[in-house]
Amino acid sequence: MKVRNASRWAPRGLRGWYFAALALIVASGGRLLLSPLLGPIMPGTAYFIAAALIAYFFGMVPALAVMGFGLLIADYLFVPPYQQIGVLDQSDVDLIVSLPLVSILVICLIERLRRSQFRTELIGLVAQSRYEMLLRADNERLLAGRAVDETHRLLRHLPRYHDDIILIQAPDRRTALDDPGGARVAGPERIAAATAPGLRYEHVHSDDIKLLLPTLTPGNHRARVDMGAGTFKPMDCICERFTTHAGDFLVLRLGG
């Protein structure tokens, strides 16, 4: 994954430059204290350490500034002949070559590592944000599924307590099935699964039920109802559509 902001890991503002100046002062003071012991040995080590620390905490640009000024200070104060810039000997050449070479190498490696670290942190934040979004979506899906299940459970109980209801059907769940030839045909099993029989369901002639189920639409219908002793009488039926958060439902009942 390509992260464009991976190079912007370093803190912005003047804080890095303040610490760079402080690092130069501390490195110079420490090297001055050690001069009686070290003499001309390792004149740029303190500035190399200071540049590496600044590179790790504040980025490449302040670290390069520390290295540049540290090179001048080290050559002026700690390379013999001391406090003379006009004289250039082997010690000056060794310092001018070694300190920038090693410092730039270490600073570049630190910059690369810090960019990789910052890139990993950004990817982790994005992954966490997406994970939280997936969790919220999953919770919403579970809540919606629970609401749908409760609605269907209620609709299964409603026909048992209303004498006029013949059946309740969910048109969204009686979708057509594809046959091998490419045509769309109604699936009887799916239509039956989307139908909740009512108390009057058994009283309606089975042939009328078979005709009504695949083509049930809101409006008036005619069906033969058992009046007792095997006698069927044509009666008016009313089909109404009800829209809920769980979908649309068709309720077929006897006409009043």
Structural commentary:
The protein is of the alpha+beta class and 256 residues long. The chain has two domains: 126 residues, no CATH class; 93 residues, 2-Layer Sandwich (Beta-Lactamase), CATH 3.30.450. It contains six helices and seven strands. The strands form two sheets. The protein has a five-stranded antiparallel beta sheet, with helices on both faces. A two-stranded antiparallel sheet has the order 2-3. Helix 2 runs antiparallel to helix 3 and helix 3 runs antiparallel to helix 4. The longest helix is centred in the middle third of the chain and has 68 residues. It holds the Pfam family DUF4118. It is a multi-pass membrane protein.
